[in-house]
Write a structure and sequence with these properties.
Helix content: 40-55%
Structural class: alpha/beta
Number of helices: 9
CATH class of the largest domain: Alpha Beta
Distance between the termini: 52 Å
Order of helices and strands: HHHEEHEHEHEEEEEHEHEEEH
CATH architecture of the largest domain: 3-Layer(aba) Sandwich
Largest sheet: 6 strands, mixed
Number of domains: 3
Radius of gyration: 32 Å
CATH topology of the largest domain: D-Maltodextrin-Binding Protein, domain 2
Strand content: 15-25%
Oligomer: single chain
Strand order of the largest sheet: 8-12-7-11-9-10
Length: 298
């Protein structure tokens, strides 16, 4: 059964006149007659009673009218849905993020995207940078916000932010009153750091920076989240070097002090949005527009 047959049927059902129905459809009368005959042959019963004076619907025709209207409406909805998906206006994106992004632009990106594209849905997953890269490579994430110094091969990247590391010390600690301090000032203190398994890149770079500054004591506490590092410091159990954005976490008991690093050995904490450029995801392009606008201060 062709949708064209249903459109012709409904036009004739409304007009009950072959000539008027043909004009309404912008066709001649013979193709309309043939289409109705084909539809009746497919169904196996007459849909109209024809005479020289009038055209009337049969019981079968009456029953087909609402079903035909529903079928055409559903077809139109399917067409619109496909077009919207092709243009990126509908659908769902799966986005990964590391926890510090909650304090470094992610909420603003999400709000901007929601306002600009209310029919697109985002599904968020908090994962470590290494976990996100694996999920991206297996197409289980559409985009991810990771903390790496460079993008792995096969993934496109957009630098979202670059921030310094700062010293994080307990509020009651003597170092909390300093305006700045060198890394070496943390010597002799219990030290907390993000786990090597969670962020091997930054774990290694911070350890190397500490060693370059003369701070040889290895980390005593390795935690799964930067927020856990700050929480441990807030309890008076450690000191740490953390991304500056964590100051926005507002954890009582932790104080953040800028670091003097004359050798520039301490890395900057860089956040990149990664995605697979080969995937056909129009909605992803719209999401990246929102990410870029917030990253650039737009």
């Amino acid at each position: 059964m062709e949708l064209r047959h249903l459109r012709y049927f409904l036009a004739l059902a409304d007009e009950l006149h072959f000539g008027r129905a043909a004009r309404r459809l912008s066709i001649s009368q013979p193709p309309l007659t043939v289409a109705i005959q084909q539809l009746e042959a497919e169904i196996g019963t007459p849909l109209f009673l024809r005479s020289s004076r009038e055209v009337q619907l049969t019981a079968a025709g009456e029953a087909l009218v609402p079903a035909a209207r529903s079928a055409l409406e559903q077809a139109a909805q399917a067409l619109h849905a496909a077009r919207d998906a092709a243009s990126g206006q509908t659908g769902r994106l799966h986005v990964g993020f590391a926890g510090t992004m909650l304090y470094r632009g992610l909420p603003q990106m999400l709000r901007r995207f929601r306002v600009d594209h209310p029919r697109l849905q985002l599904s968020l997953r908090e994962l470590s940078s290494s976990e996100q890269i694996v999920e991206l490579q297996h197409a289980r994430l559409d985009a991810g916000f990771v903390h790496v110094s460079r993008a792995p091969e096969g993934l496109a990247q957009l630098l979202v932010s670059s921030q310094p590391f700062v010293a994080c010390v307990p509020a009651e600690h003597k170092l909390a009153r300093r305006r700045t301090l060198p890394i070496l000032a943390l010597a002799g203190e219990p030290f907390a750091l993000i786990s090597r398994s969670v962020s091997p890149d930054y774990h290694a770079r911070i350890v190397n920076a500490c060693q370059a500054a003369g701070l040889q004591q290895p980390p005593l506490h390795e935690l799964q989240h930067w927020l856990s590092v700050v929480s441990l410091v807030a309890q008076g159990l450690a000191v740490a070097l953390v991304p500056a954005a964590l100051q926005q976490a507002g954890l009582h008991g932790a104080v953040f002090v800028p670091v003097q690093d004359p050798q520039s050995s301490l890395p900057r904490y860089e956040t990149r949005c990664l995605w697979q450029p080969a995937r056909d995801l129009p909605a992803l392009g719209l999401f990246l527009q929102a990410v870029r606008a917030v990253a650039e201060g737009g």
